[in-house]
Amino acid sequence: MAGDRREQEPETTAITAGRDASGALSPALWASSTWHTNDLDGTHRGAKAVHESGFYSRYANPTVEAFERTIAELEGAESALAFGSGMGAIASTVFALCSSGDHIVAQRNMYAGTLGFLDGACKRMGIEVTYVDGRNAAEFAAAVRPGKTMLVMAETPTNPHLDVVDLDALGAIKGPFTFVDSTLATPLGQQPLRHGVNIVMHSATKGIAGHNDATLGVIAAEKELVNTIWAYSVLHGATASPFDALNGLRGVRTLGARLRQQSETAQQVAEWLSAHPAVKRVNYPGLTSHPQHELAKRQMRWFGSVFSIELCGGIAEARALTQRLSLVRCAVTLGGPDTLISHSATSTHLSVSPEVKAATGISESLLRVSVGLEAAPDIIADFAQALK
Known about the structure:
The chain is an alpha/beta fold. 38% of the residues lie in helices and 15% in strands. The chain is built from 14 helices and twelve strands. The protein has helices spanning 10-16, 40-48, 62-75, 86-97, 112-124, 137-143, 167-171, 223-236, 242-253, 255-274, 293-299, 315-324, 354-360, 376-386; strands at 79-83, 103-107, 128-132, 149-155, 177-181, 199-202, 217-221, 279-283, 306-311, 329-330, 340-343, 366-370. Helix 1 (10-16) packs antiparallel against helix 3 (62-75), helix 4 packs parallel to helix 5 and helix 10 (255-274) packs parallel to helix 14. The longest helix is centred in the C-terminal third of the chain and has 20 residues, at 255-274. The relative contact order is 0.13.
C-alpha cells in the first residue's frame, strides 16, 4: 500500500528530484532570456505571474526552476528560489523582509561577507543588528525584540571555526523569521526546516555544485514566503544563470557520493592533525574534542568536508605551511573536488575588524581546510612533509 511506503534517503532524492515529464536524464539548458506570446493578453499574463517561466528569465527560467525544485525536495520545503550567488540570496532575503527601523538578531561568528552586509548595507538602510554568540542557543531568543525583530540569522556549522548552532532552539523562536546558512553542511548533511527553521540558505557555489564551475545561491522555505522574497528578487536582479543552475543540478546528482567520501576523509585528516605537535587545535564537529560534538551528532547526518586548524605559532608558520604543501592548494572556496587551504584572517575575513577577529578566534595561525576527493593517505602525507 502507498501508505506503507518508506521515505527514501536524501542520497536517493538527490538523484530523483527536480525531474520533468520529458524523460531526459540530463536537464535541458534553456539559455533564452525571454519568450514570445501570441498577443498582448499573453504578455500581460506573464508579467503578473508569480515565479513562473515562459516570460522573462529574470522572473523565472525552466533550467533554474529544475534546480529550485531539486533543492526544495532535498530540504523538505514547499518551494525554493535560486540566485546568482550566496550573497545575492542573503541580500535579497534581508531586504525583502526588513525595512528601515527593523531589527535583526545574528550570530557574531559568521561568514565575513554576511557580516559586511549586515554592518554595511543594513546599517546604512537603518536596519539595526544585534550580535550574539551562536554557541549559546539562549542568546538568540533573549535578543529578540517583540514586534521589532524581523529576522534571526544563524550559520551552522560556521565558517571558519565550525561552531554548531542548536537548530531545535532556533526553530522554537516565535515571531521573527528564522534563517540558517547551511552551506557547509549541504542539504544532505542537515535539514534546518525539519527543526522548525523558516528559511534555509546555501551558497550552492560550494558543496552543492561541487566542481568549482558555478556561482549560485539558493533559499528554501514555505511557498508563500518564497514568493514574497521572489517579488523583491525580481527588482534586486541577483538572478541565477541557467548555465550555473545546470551545473548546480549536475552537482546535486553526485552530492551523496562526494559528501560521504569528503566527510570520511576529513575525519581521518582531522584526527591525524589533532595528534601532530605543530598543531594547537583542530576544529571539526566530527571530533570528540569539539565542544559541540554531541549536538552535531544529533542534527547532522555527515560532519562535512571542512575543518580548520590553529598552528603553534603565528602567520609565519601559517605561511610556511602553505608554501610547503604540494597536493593541497591555496584557494578560498570550499566543497569542490580539490583539497584547498586558506588563511581566513588575510582572505575571507580580511574585512573583519581586529576586535571581532579576536572575539571570534580568527587568529593569524588559523587555517581553513576544504577536503576534496583525493585519497586520505595522500592528503595526510602532504601535510606530514609540510609540517616537518
